[in-house]
Specification:
CATH class of the largest domain: Alpha Beta
Protein name: Aspartate aminotransferase-like enzyme
Structural class: alpha/beta
Largest sheet: 7 strands, mixed
CATH topology of the largest domain: Aspartate Aminotransferase, domain 2
CATH architecture of the largest domain: 3-Layer(aba) Sandwich
Cofactor: pyridoxal 5'-phosphate
GO molecular function: alanine-glyoxylate transaminase activity; L-serine-pyruvate transaminase activity
Number of domains: 2
Bound molecules: pyridoxal-5'-phosphate
Strand order of the largest sheet: 1-9-8-7-4-2-3
Keywords: Aminotransferase, Pyridoxal phosphate, Transferase
Pfam families: Aminotran_5
Number of helices: 14
Order of helices and strands: HHEHEHEHEEEHEHEEHHHHEEHEHH
Length: about 375
């Protein structure tokens, strides 16, 4: 992939790029779980595309319901508010998935039919909880509302079935599960979404999805795309397809589980509910007497491993977040557990490192490198 990035830049209106972009879209389709929608590649971070799908499908004053079960659902709502939508949050506890039953109740209330869109984050990268989009889709499908999904940190790591689950607008980005550098965003739109987008006929050019659709049909981007990032994405997708999509998801699940199981021996327990814990990011509670920020600092300064805390959130100081998404190997998990052990010990905590490593090894057995 690094070699793909370093190649000569090619003309973005030429036949070579056209083939590259068409291939990329074709390889993305099964990851989005769609046979009907053609993925659009935008040059932007994930947030740019989240804003783009809202700007293309909402008018000022439109009523929007955001499923607020963590950081990203709430933030998605704020994006809609910034575009003039009238946003209501349907809150459910952090650490769980969004609540499909509560959504059903809310949408069947007397004014529930007024919502133009329901916003959901698939994998909340702050709480480490995954939302059951099939259940949410079942609720939204028969309403006039669009189901708009932030899949920035899940595409490529977690199964997504856009067609089967009835997802209308799905947004992802290059730098999380797809293991590329940041800079590309990916969007799919259902027929229901396109109908809405055509009606709204939003202002603005750069993120005009109708224009992007027209250009994508010709194997082009509306404006100059990040050509070499498309090359990198193409290579990443080639790797995923070579390993097998189902195998990639299964491997991801095992890597995430192995890290969480090892960390549990170090007193670091999963923050999210176990049945919805994300395999792409392990959000771990730090025990009493252990400073989360210090663990992050030790991991960085002593071991050169970048993990995260939960700054500017209610979880600040109480959890650490360890990414296992994208380009991650069993050896990375082994190292993580060993380094986490050292970081916890440094704060005077007595932990059974051997047990942590043995459990991790057991969970990793048979996982391909
Ligand atoms: C990282 C992330 C984003 C933000 O994406 P950017 O590419 O940084 O704009 C949005 N949603 C989720 C769930 C994320 O994990």
């Amino acid at each position: 992939m690094l070699q793909a990035l370093g190649q000569q830049v090619i003309y973005h209106r030429g036949s070579e790029f056209k083939e590259l972009l068409n291939d990329t879209a074709a390889m993305l389709q099964p990851l989005f779980g769609t046979q009907t929608a053609s993925p659009i590649v935008l040059t932007s971070s994930g947030t740019g595309a989240l804003e783009a799908v809202l700007a293309n499908s909402l008018r000022p004053g439109d009523r929007v319901l955001t499923l607020d079960n963590g950081h990203w659902g709430a933030r998605f709502g704020r994006l809609a508010t910034s575009l003039g939508a009238s946003v209501e949050a349907l809150s459910s506890p952090w650490g769980g998935g969004a609540d499909a039953d509560a959504l059903r109740r809310r949408l069947s209330a007397p004014d529930g039919g007024e919502f133009v869109a329901v916003l959901a984050a698939h994998n909340d990268t702050f709480t480490g909880a995954v939302t059951d989009l099939a259940a949410i889709g079942d609720v939204v499908r028969d309403t006039s509302a669009l189901l708009v999904v932030d899949a920035v940190s899940s595409l490529g790591c977690l199964p997504i079935e856009t067609d089967a689950w009835g997802l209308d607008l799905v947004v992802s980005a290059s730098q999380k599960g797809l293991m590329c550098p940041p800079g590309l965003a990916l969007v799919t739109a259902s027929d229901k979404a396109w109908t809405r987008i055509d009606q709204v006929a939003a202002r603005g050019e750069y993120f005009d999805l109708r224009k992007a659709r027209e250009m994508a049909a010709q194997g082009q981007a509306s404006f100059t795309p990040a050509v070499n990032l498309v090359r990198a994405l193409h290579e990443a997708l080639r790797m995923v397809h070579e390993a097998g999509i189902a195998e990639t998801f299964a491997r991801q699940a095992r890597l995430g589980r192995a890290l969480a199981a090892g960390a549990a021996h170090l007193g670091l327990s999963l923050y999210p509910d176990a049945d919805v814990a994300s395999p792409c990011v392990s959000v771990l509670r730090t025990p009493k007497g252990i400073d989360a920020a210090k663990i992050v600092a030790t991991m960085r300064d002593r071991y050169g491993t970048q993990i995260a805390g939960a700054r500017r959130s209610p979880l600040d100081g109480t959890v650490i977040r360890v990414g296992t998404m994208g380009y991650c190997q069993p050896d990375d998990i082994r190292l993580d557990v060993w380094q986490l052990a050292g970081s916890v010990q440094e704060q005077g905590q007595d932990v059974d490192v051997a047990a942590a490593i043995a459990t991790t090894e057991r969970e990793l057995e048979g996982v391909p490198a």
